[in-house]
Amino acid sequence: MRNGSGTGRSARTVLPLVALVFAMVGLSFAAVPLYDLFCRVTGYGGTTQRAEAASDEILDQTVTIRFDSTIAASLPWSVEPEEKTITLRVGETAKINYVAQSGSDLATVGTSTFNVSPPSAGLYFNKMECFCFTEQPLGPGESAEMPVVFFVDPEFARDKDTQGVSVITLSYAFYPVEQDVAEGATEPPAARQPL
After folding, report:
1. Are strands 125-130 and 49-50 parallel, antiparallel or unpaired?
2. Whole-angstrom distance between the N-terminal and C-terminal Cα of the chain?
3. Whether domain 47-176 has CATH 2.60.370.10
4. Assuming Cys at both sites, which of 35, 45, 121, 172 could form a disulfide with 112, CB separation 3.0 to 4.6 Å?
5. CA quadruple 68, 101, 51, 154: dihedral positive or negative?
6. What is the 3-state secondary structure (H, E, C) of 18-72?
7. What is the spatial order of strands in the sheet that 167-176 belongs to?
8. Cα(133)–Cα(113) distance, rounded to whole angstroms?
9. E-only strand ranges, 55-135
10. What is the pLDDT of residues 97-130, one digit of tens each?
């Protein structure tokens, strides 16, 4: 004759396992924003910083900034920096433009990801303004200048991990934003802030 003790043991085993599954799913959704926050705070992986104001200290030491871009095959754009390299003093604010040209006969919207190399410089590369903060709409055949305003924090010159670094590369990867655009639309949808 069976008693109810087997059912009680099963319930005590199943409930923690179900809770574990829900916890793992919750952590998987939290992993991306937490990793993004970690990268922004530490500069890990060449993640740049965001600044509200220019540096109040400009050093005599100079650094060369190189600019490049890659475009996903599914985005019918060409994107190039107006200048391939600039040299500026550490702490000095600079502005450069990337120029995007749509090769599509339809409205398109693109966005970009970015990083700097060497990765140790990411903590000190500060953007005050960047096209990468929002999605970029382009009409058919339209071109646009997309500005980046930045400076290299003077702490860059004092950090033993970045001493000897004289060249920083700022890289952008462009890809399309999936939009609900009516077929044949010629006006791009309004840009929106990425999450």
Report:
1. parallel
2. 60
3. yes
4. 172
5. positive
6. HHHHHHHHHHHHHHHHHHHHHHHHHCHHHCCEECCCCCCCCCCCEEEEEEEEEEC
7. 85-89, 62-71, 167-176, 108-117, 136-138
8. 9
9. 62-71, 77-81, 85-89, 94-102, 108-117, 125-130
10. 999 999 999 999 999 999 899 999 999 999 999 9
Q: Which residue has the higher pLDDT, 75 or 191?
A: 75
62-71 vs 167-176, strand pairing mode: parallel
Per-domain residue ranges of the chain: 5-42, 47-176
Amino acid at site 81: P
Contact in structure between 90 and 125 (CB atoms under 8 Å) = no
Q: Is the overall model pTM greater than 0.90, yes or no?
A: no
In whole angstroms, what is the distance from residue 56 CA to residue 82 CA?
Answer: 27
Rounded Cα distance between 139 and 155, Å, is: 42
Is 67 in contact with 134 (CB distance < 8 Å)? Answer: no
Helix, strand or coil for residue 95? strand
Residue 170: pLDDT above 50? yes
pLDDT band at 29 (very low <50, low <70, confident <90, very high): low
